[in-house]
Amino acid sequence: MRVRTYNDVIRDFVNIADAMNRAVDRNAAYDYAGNGGSAAQPVENVASLPLDVVATPEAFNVVAYVPGIDPEAVEITFEGDELTIRGRLPKAEEGGDWIKRELYHGGFERRLGFNVPVNADGIEAHFHNGLLTLRIPKAEAIRPKQIKVQTK
């Protein structure tokens, strides 16, 4: 019997949280045509952008792969306590007979909520070789303070 580690429990929790976020996504549009009804306009699927998020005492570091995208075409906003990253992966070449078509082409979006205050004015975004990196500094008030012990 395998002993479950702390990381296993956290990974399971994150998977459940992601599933719940997808289930209650307030911006999801119901696909009437795809579910037997009719719709005036087809509903476009928007993929959830996978992220790596690391917390340090000073900031949150967010990393996402966005290959083939012009950095100017990625929209990053921070409103309230929520970071949103949106964009669109370019369409695949048309013509010829497809043998395999596995790469995703179309819109993507990811929303990430923060449960601690952050310094929205200090957010930095960098793009290099298809790797989007954001540094979101924590508010000064919540950063850990080192207290020096004084002797007499």
Describe the protein's architecture and organization.
The chain has 152 residues and is mainly β. Helices cover 12% and strands 30% of the residues. It has one helix and eight strands; from the N terminus they run αββββββββ. The strands form two sheets. Strands 1-6-5-4 form a four-stranded mixed β-sheet, with no helix packed on it. The mean pLDDT is 82.
Helix- and strand-based class? mainly beta
Radius of gyration: 20 Å
Helix content: 10-25%
Trace the largest sheet across and list its strands: 1-6-5-4
Level-2 CATH architecture of the domain at 45-93 and 104-142: Sandwich
Number of separate helices: 1
The biggest beta sheet reads: 4 strands, mixed
Low-confidence stretches: none
The fraction of residues in strands falls at 25-35%
End-to-end Cα distance = 55 Å
Task: Kindly report the average pLDDT value.
Answer: 82
CATH class of the domain at 45-93 and 104-142: Mainly Beta
Q: What is the third-level CATH name, the topology of the domain at 45-93 and 104-142? A: Immunoglobulin-like
* Series of H and E elements: HEEEEEEEE
How many beta strands in the DSSP annotation? 8
Write down the overall geometry: extended
